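Quiz preparation item.
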């Protein structure tokens, strides 16, 4: 083995060891101040990952919602459309329930703010529009995602024929 590859391999192993065994500074761990008990509750070391994951889910949902209307009615493009929305709404509903369960009112308030970005509002608006035009059916979704989609479209009426035409 060439010495350069040996050095690169050793550096990579060393970096992994540092990530795995060096404790994270408490300054970098997000926490919530709970009003009920007045204590600080640590969200967890992975909260930064969840923040990035939420951004990625928004992007994927918007990509799904920007598909041409005709492509939402069948085949692989319909599967892709439904899958993108299903993932987004599943994680959004799951986090809404889990943060409230794990962190109380402070967690519920925190996660509600995290899922209230302009992009989240845009996803909801485009979902309502797709439903109203007949390109989305709640029956396409299940479980947690269906629970949230039902709430998002509850005020909408189907006025278009969409996939029925």
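Solution:
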């Amino acid at each position: 083995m060439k010495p350069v590859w040996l050095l690169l391999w050793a550096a990579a192993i060393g970096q992994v060891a540092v990530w795995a065994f060096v404790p994270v500074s408490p300054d970098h761990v997000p926490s919530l101040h709970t009003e009920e008990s007045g204590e600080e509750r640590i969200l967890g070391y992975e909260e930064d990952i969840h923040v990035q994951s939420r951004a990625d889910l928004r992007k994927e949902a918007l990509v799904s919602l920007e598909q041409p209307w005709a492509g939402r009615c069948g085949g692989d493009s319909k599967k892709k459309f439904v899958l993108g929305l299903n993932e987004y709404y599943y994680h959004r509903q799951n986090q809404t329930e889990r943060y409230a369960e794990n962190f109380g009112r402070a967690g519920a308030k925190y996660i509600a703010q995290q899922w209230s970005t302009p992009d989240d509002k845009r996803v909801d608006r485009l979902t309502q529009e797709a439903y109203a035009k007949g390109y989305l059916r709640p029956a396409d979704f299940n479980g947690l995602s269906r629970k949230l989609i039902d709430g998002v479209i509850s005020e909408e009426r189907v006025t278009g024929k969409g996939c029925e035409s």
